[in-house]
Amino acid sequence: MGNSEPSPQARLTLDVMGAMASFACAVHCAAVALLLGVLPAISVFSALWIDWAFLGLSALLGATALGPGFRRHRLRTPLVLFTVGIGILALTRVLHLEPEMLLVLVAAACLIAAHWRNRTALHRCACAVQAHRHAGDQVAVAAAAPAPAGSSAPSSPLITAR
Question: What is the DSSP letter of 130?
Fold first, then answer.
């Protein structure tokens, strides 16, 4: 059996999806609050199950993206932001806290920040092990064979082009 941990690209994609889901949740809450008084037919979108669906999706994406991310980069900040965001959303739903809109926006900001921080940390990890190269990098790896006698080639295996 293979390693069940997602690839670095999949982890970055999960963070983008998690941030987008958090943003969509915030937009949904704002739009429903604004349109509910104007269009009574929109009340189907203000159903309680939609709020719990967004919460469940955010929790699932967060756990899938941030768990493996933490195992790789060991930063607690994304996990703390994620826990605070999910906690605010859950408490707002269960206890019917007010001002709901403000709390949902704060929670969404925490979730987006958690995914963004995780994504940047994973990106740094990938760069540290040279999993990819950025455009403009000018690093060449020297051949494994030693330089010919009398050559002025440096003895380091990494040569930086200038």
Answer: T
